[in-house]
Specification:
The complex is a heterodimer. Chain A has a 7-stranded mixed β-sheet, covered by helices on one side. In chain A, strands 1, 3, 6, 8 and 9 form a 5-stranded mixed β-sheet that branches. A 4-stranded antiparallel β-sheet of chain A has the order 5-4-2-7, with no helix packed on it. In chain A, helix 6 packs antiparallel against helix 7. Chain A has 3 domains: 92 residues, OB fold (Dihydrolipoamide Acetyltransferase, E2P) (Beta Barrel), CATH 2.40.50.100; 55 residues, no CATH class; 144 residues, Chloramphenicol acetyltransferase-like domain (Chloramphenicol Acetyltransferase, 2-Layer Sandwich), CATH 3.30.559.10. By secondary structure, chain A is of the alpha+beta class. Helices cover 22% and strands 24% of the residues of chain A. Chain B is of the alpha/beta class. In chain B, helix 2 links the parallel strand 2 and strand 3. The longest helix of chain B is centred in the first third of the chain and has 15 residues. The radius of gyration of chain B is 21 Å and the shape is globular. Chains A and B meet through helix 2, helix 4 and strand 11 of A and helix 9, helix 10, helix 13 and helix 14 of B.
Chain lengths: 339, 340
């Protein structure tokens, strides 16, 4: 039916053809091209044998052999992809076996990782004893079609993201995280468990306060969040607070005192991050500690939930409790901040 | 540019085409003296007389059947169906006769007829005068279906419809008759099968028909404040459908919501969503969502009726959800600081 050039199946899948009426699988006899080769539409890619016949399968379109999904000697179900042809030269062509099913092979992955990690020490190219736990928790990794396609084209192994506990389903943006992951798991010394505290607020005081502050004082929501969080630190000097909301990041310098209008944008490294996830479907977070303590605000059935995450060394228990209590109080009742 | 109402735009289109081509005639209930119950055709009978602007008895199958026959024998009738809901009455004339004559006659006959009718809920007209039924006719091969989203589209599409040699059904949103939009004084036509990119964006594509374009525009304004850059596409005709513009947009944004005011199940939005899935699957970073009217008869209670149709707020909510993958990522990324 789709006979226009816009039909979306690119990169192009070459599938196992049906050669006989009652044929379920085909035997891949041998490959005539190698992963990464440039191919023309009528180039023979591989040979297939069934109980009755033998046939050569063409690439079907000009491009590059980005992935071979079965090895010579393997049976492949009719209709399943055997090869992937991409328009662009693949950075790291993939060769895998049909036995691996949907999961790309762990050993193939280290190759591309090398290129992307900037300035990192050289990684062992040999595959570590790959824990064969694709998707760990029961099989299939959830990823968007586009993320899966790009991962395949660029030789990125989604298993590594899954093993790192990165939340699924994976989207295109998550591939950035994958590219930045060290090639092997950092077998570092077990560090102290990070701190994670959660507070519930009965109400979201901001919904009334923000419009008022915007009109009366010309304050933005981000500046208010930064001001409330910065003051909760109770520092003697100015502190820098970063507010992340809907993918946008703003950094503010918060002077001591209660004046929200003294909050100004800055580029300094932050002492605290406020992540505003209200309005998203996310209700709780456990993202692990980061370099900087993070206060995550999520919407709850009624009111708000606020989570503080930080490394154990960043803030002792008392300080962490005080910071979260102060901030939660201000979020529930912003006027308290001013009084 | 001057601004005129959608009602005036339709009136102008008809008057211009009737002056241009003496075979163009209008027929329907209350079209002449009353100028239709929405006053869209006011004044036409004064210029063109009752031979060309014809009041018919209250019998939809009768006058649509007459129009089909007239179209087959040399006229270019524009039939006025007072409410889109009455389309059920003329299903045989429209779908069995008009849509199939060219095929059944081996190409010897054409039916250059326009069925002008309307759609749209939230007018407090209850379940039998509020329906949005373009999906019914879009399903039938042989009929073209146009859904103007403003006065500009209403005029340009109507003129193209009248000159088309196939039966065309045009649904005007009855709540938009008094909405004004810039419409050039000079003549123009809007070709069928050419979508309009109403707003360019990079994060999500909102494909919207008829008055849902305005819903999408309001949603896009809110989303812009949240850093989500929405692209809005108005297909303008759903048969023929400008697939390429839709696919190109979704390839760019990787996400799409299809908004059509018809019932959501088995509807226009479902058809467009299915085509996106078939043809740009590997470019999608989130599922394609449909948004349509609730699968209930349109309630008479204003409070309930307003709940049944897509709203800008609901579009914003859905767009946020589709972009949430990016949001989660942005929350984790924190690159600027960890790099240090």
């Amino acid at each position: 039916m789709p006979h226009d050039e816009t039909s979306g199946f690119r990169p192009h899948d070459v599938t196992m053809p049906q050669l006989g009426m009652a044929q379920d699988t085909g035997l891949l006899v041998n490959w005539l091209k190698s992963p990464g080769d440039e191919v023309a539409a009528n180039d023979i890619l591989f040979e297939v044998e069934t109980d009755k016949s033998k046939m050569e399968v063409e690439a079907g379109r000009n491009g590059f052999l980005a992935a071979t999904l079965a090895e010579a000697g393997e049976e492949v179900p009719v209709g399943d992809p055997v090869a992937i042809i991409s328009d662009a030269r693949p950075e790291a062509p993939v060769a895998r076996s049909a036995r691996d099913g949907g999961a790309p092979p762990a050993p193939a992955a280290p190759v591309p990782a090398e290129k992307d990690t900037t300035g990192a020490p050289a990684k062992p190219a040999a595959a570590a004893p790959a824990p064969k736990t694709p998707g760990a928790k029961g099989g299939r990794i959830l990823a968007s079609p586009k993320a899966r396609r790009l991962a395949l084209e660029q030789g990125l192994d989604l298993n590594r993201l899954a093993e790192a506990g990165h939340p699924q389903p994976f989207h295109v943006a998550d591939l950035d995280v994958l590219r930045k992951m060290p090639a092997t798991a950092p077998a570092g010394a077990p560090s102290e468990a990070p701190r994670r505290l959660t507070a519930s607020c009965a109400g979201d005081g901001l919904s009334e306060f923000v419009p008022w502050a915007a009109e009366a004082q010309g304050l933005t929501l981000d500046a208010i969040l930064a001001g409330l969080a910065g003051a909760s630190l109770g520092a003697d000097g100015s502190v820098t607070v970063v507010v992340e909301r809907l993918g946008l990041t703003h950094s503010f310098s918060v002077p001591p005192g209660r004046s929200l209008s003294a909050v100004a944008e800055t580029d300094d490294a932050p002492a605290l991050i406020v992540r505003d996830l209200r309005g998203t479907p996310i209700s709780t977070v456990a993202l692990g500690s980061e370099q900087t303590p993070v206060l995550t605000v999520t919407g709850a059935a009624e009111g708000l939930s606020i989570t503080l995450e930080c490394a154990a060394g960043a803030r002792d228990a008392t300080e962490a409790i005080r910071l979260l209590t102060e901030f939660a109080g201000r979020m529930e009742q912003p006027l308290r901040h001013l009084l | 540019m001057r601004e005129i109402t959608l009602s005036q735009a339709v009136n102008e289109a008809l008057a211009e085409e009737m002056r241009r081509d003496p075979t163009v005639v209008i027929l329907g209930e209350d079209v002449a003296e009353a100028g239709t119950s929405f006053k869209v055709l006011s004044g036409l009978v004064d210029e063109f007389g009752t031979d060309r602007v014809i009041d018919t008895p209250i019998s939809e199958p009768g006058f649509v059947g007459i129009a089909v026959g007239a179209a087959m024998t040399g006229a270019r009738p524009v039939v006025d169906l007072m409410f889109g809901d009455f389309i059920y009455l003329v299903m045989d004339q429209l779908c069995n006769q008009a849509a199939k004559q060219h095929y059944m006659s081996g190409g010897k006959l054409t039916v250059p007829m326009v069925l002008r009718t309307n759609l749209g809920a939230t007018r407090r007209s209850a379940a039998q005068h509020s329906q949005i039924l373009q999906a019914l006719v879009a399903h039938i091969p042989g009929l073209k279906v146009a859904l103007p989203s403003s006065a500009y589209e209403a005029k340009g599409l109507m003129k193209t419809a009248i000159r088309d040699n196939n039966p065309v059904v045009i649904f005007e949103d009855k709540l938009m008759y008094q909405h004004k939009a810039p419409v050039p004084e000079e003549e123009y036509l809007i070709p069928f099968g050419e979508a309009n990119v109403k707003r360019e964006g990079k994060d999500i594509t909102l494909i919207a028909t008829s008055s849902m374009v305005q819903v999408a525009e309001k949603a896009a304004e809110t989303l812009a404040q949240e850093g989500i850059d929405a692209e809005i596409i108005d297909p303008r005709t759903i048969v023929p459908l400008d697939e390429k513009t839709l696919l190109d947009s979704v390839k760019k944004t990787s996400r799409a919501i299809v908004i059509d005011e018809g019932h959501q199940s088995y509807g226009v939005s479902a058809e467009i969503a299915a085509r996106l899935n078939e043809k740009v699957f590997y470019h999608l970073d989130a599922p394609v969502l449909r948004m349509g009217a609730m699968d209930v008869p349109v309630p008479f209670s204003p409070a309930l009726e307003d709940l049944t149709v897509p709203t800008p707020e609901a579009v914003v909510e859905n767009a946020r959800k589709l972009c949430a993958g990016e949001l989660i990522h942005a929350a984790r990324r924190n690159l600027r600081f960890q790099a240090a």
